[in-house]
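[Meeting: bench + compute handoff]

Bench side (C.D.) handed over the final construct sequence. Compute side (W.E.) agreed to return the predicted structure before the next meeting so the bench team could plan truncations. Sequence as handed over:
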Amino acid sequence: MSQTYFQVIAHYHVQPEQLTAVLELLARLRAASREEPANLSYDYFQNTDDPTHLVILERYTDAEGFAAHREYEHFRTLGIDGIIPRLDRRQVDTYPVVAAG
């Protein structure tokens, strides 16, 4: 049986003086996002060579679930208003996945 899901891989490059604030906001965003009905997982990692480079791995049941994520109040307040202005740059890639199981 195969499993389908929607994978999101985001790279955040944080302004160095904003790193502590972004990590705090990201922890709150992770907790809230994990409560969404379509969210399968939400984790983030800090690069050991460049601590201002964060990688966020998110999985949703489908593309519609990810679209819904972007409409939640917690995404708007923590992500759009809180995190994104503190970044130098970001890249978000999305992938529909069918995994053999």
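W.E. noted at the follow-up: The mean pLDDT is 96. C.D. will use this when planning the next construct.
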